[in-house]
Amino acid sequence: MPESSVFPPLIDDCWVITGPTASGKSALAIELAKRLDGEIVSMDSMAVYRSMDVGTAKPSEQQRREVPHHLLDLVAPDEPFSVACFLRHAHRAVAEIRDRGHTPLLVGGTPMYLKGVLRGFDPGPPADWEFRKQVDEDIEKFGLDRLRDRLMQVDPLSAHRLHPNDRRRMTRALEVAKLTGVPLSHKQLQFEQQRSPEQCRVFACMWPRPILHERINQRVDQMFAAGLVDETQQLIERYGTLSRTAAQAVGYAEVLEHLDGRLTLEQTVEAVQTHTRQLARRQETFLRSFGERTIVDMQSGGSLAEISQRLVQKQP
């Protein structure tokens, strides 16, 4: 685990298995881990939360007995958990797996976790809450356009890159420039370099979109059948308020609306399916920006064991 504030990439001797939600990456990773004497490090931003099991499709107890899994159930659902927190835990887990002589497999589809693994990450200075409060007050008075205008003056590259409604990231870009004197976009340049697919073991599980959508719909149905509503109710009863990240998770966010009486159960299931399909499309778009990846056609034929065998055989 690095002691400095900057986290280097983690792909030198790790395998990375990614893909959109419901693409089968976890099941494929388990087959690979068995062949490689490997251990799995989760890259799922929701799986770090304890008691959020059904809605995050965490690996079963049987799967965890077959292959060791790391970075699951790290914090309570009412606690914040950042990219820097993830990378700190991930670097430690990878180092310990290597020390045991095993192969680390980083598995998941959370975009910023994946980017930190592939390109490295500089978390920057700690939050300045007084500054953020002032920004929030300005937004309430003058709107998001004023925030964007301020960012355009100090970091035009970030202003052009970020969506004009992305209040959180525009605020952070302003904050970094204020605290360090260096635009956030300049600090991020070191993380834009990429390797070729032949130089790393980064695999993205992909399906034709109609099939992926059907897999998503089936998974959502299974989650509700497995007790997603009851699980969410128990979380509220136990913790009261979830962290912003946990409360906004697809599946839980819609069920919270259902528990508030704003959605019927049928509407809730449909909303979760729709939002999960939208999430998968965003993940696919994000994955296309990484030249490190090798596409794994999950419809190419053969079992997961056969696909994993082909991947291992291709490696030098």
Automatic annotation (TrEMBL):
Annotated binding of substrate, by residue: T21, A22, S23, G24, K25, S26
Site positions (Interaction with substrate tRNA): T110, R132
Matching InterPro entries: Dimethylallyltransferase, IPT, P-loop_NTPase
Gene Ontology process terms (BP): tRNA modification
Catalyzed reactions per annotation: adenosine(37) in tRNA + dimethylallyl diphosphate = N(6)-dimethylallyladenosine(37) in tRNA + diphosphate
One Pfam family cited in the UniProt record for this chain: IPPT
Cofactor: Mg(2+)
Function in brief: Catalyzes the transfer of a dimethylallyl group onto the adenine at position 37 in tRNAs that read codons beginning with uridine, leading to the formation of N6-(dimethylallyl)adenosine (i(6)A).
Quaternary structure note: Monomer.
NCBIfam families associated with the record: miaA (TIGR00174)
Protein name in UniProt: tRNA dimethylallyltransferase
Organism, scientific name: Roseimaritima ulvae
Gene behind the chain: miaA
